[in-house]
Amino acid sequence: MKNSIIAGAALALMSASSMAQVTLYGRVDLSIAQQADNVKDIEMRNGSGSRLGVRGVEDLGGGLSALFELQHRFNANNGTQTNSTIFWEGRSVVGLSSGFGTVVLGREENPAYTYGQIPADPWGGDTVASNGSIVNGRIGSTRYSNSVNYKGQLGDLRFGAQMTEGNGLPNRPYSLGASYGAGALTVGLGYENPGNKDDDWLTLSGGYDFGAFKLLGLIGNGTNANGEKHQAWLLSATAPVGAGELRFSYGELKNKDLDLIADKQLALGYHYMLSKRTTLYADVVNESRDALPSNFETTGWDFGVRHNF
User: Fold this and answer.
1) What pLDDT, in 10s, does the model give residues 243-292?
2) How far, in whole angstroms, is CA 251 from its chain's centroid?
3) Which domains does the chain have, with CATH numbers?
4) Which residues of 183-222 are buried (b: 16+ CB within 10 A; e: fewer)?
5) Where does residue 24 rank: exposed (0-12), middle (13-18), buried (19+ CB within 10 A)?
6) pTM of the predicted model, to two decimals?
7) What one-character-per-residue DSSP string does 105-119 give?
8) N or C: which end of the chain has fewer CB within 10 A?
9) Do the Cβ atoms of 164 and 135 come closer than 8 Å?
């Protein structure tokens, strides 16, 4: 019943396109995979988060526009939603945009992740080869609910800021991010405070496109909620090969206070573009971390297909 209501609402939004520019979009992505850092279990899984979204923009005149976006995440292998408590898990925002930037309210990706963390990961946080725990230091989060967000751009410089309610945390979580791109060079900076007493995470990332390949890197430094100092680094690269892209990464996350490598990962993959919207991919990753159970696999792999619409 709830899914029927959601589908009906999406169709109603589409029918309003004469008054506003409304777009229905999505992705279906499935793979046969064995995850590293998990028990031996060859399964069908979402490689990059299957999703269904709707977004729209209305011109209010004088350079001012209203906008919204709703994005649902689901498991394409069985049709269930990814998060049992949040239906619009990917994004749920409404706001205003002008020449001075964009302000949105709701559930949104944080700018430290957008500009300073995820650009260094060739997989963008997707598939079994994701470098998520390295780029966020096991401290940051991809997105926050109940947030106020601002994004702006000055020439080649893009930047953003976010503040959230906190939901009972000692402090209100906030994050800042910026990126600069000129020609072959890109640089990103992110700072995130998740709202606990001691935690924060600062990253510097960058990349340079040599043509035959693109080299990427990240360094991170911060403190987790227990007051333990974390440091991370990631070196990665992409290269066009045929109609696809070869991807490589190696990185480490270290807990300095405990003097141990919390996470270490080596990954290699190839993503082949059948068209602008359809991709076949294969990845392999070797991962080791602190306190890894003896029955957990250290090597993971996947073979999948992704279609955007």
Assistant:
1) 999 999 999 999 999 999 999 999 999 999 999 999 999 999 999 988 88
2) 17
3) 2-308 (2.40.160.10)
4) eeebbbbbbbbbbbeebbbbbebbbeeeeeebebbbbbbb
5) middle
6) 0.88
7) EEEEE-HIIIIIIGG
8) N
9) no
